[in-house]
Amino acid sequence: MIVKWRKSTYTGGANDNQCVELGRLAPGVGIGLRDSKDPDGGRLTLSPAQFAHLIEQIKRDPAC
């Protein structure tokens, strides 16, 4: 499966390479996160529930 990575809409724009990219992985695998500066490097894989929890944490405390 080819993962379609996308940058957050909160970055500086399409040419901003200082951000995290998200990608929906194979069904049942979850959400992938990677560093846009190192797309071939490692990635963090979260279940949909873990990803939702991460987003809630960021909304509550954007400084974390």
TrEMBL record:
Domain of life, per UniProt, equals: Bacteria
Q: Which Pfam families match?
A: DUF397 (PF04149)
Report domain DUF397 positions.
4-59
InterPro entries xref list: DUF397
Question: What name goes with this protein?
Answer: DUF397 domain-containing protein
The species this protein was found in: Actinomadura citrea
Origin organism lineage: Bacteria, Bacillati, Actinomycetota, Actinomycetes, Streptosporangiales
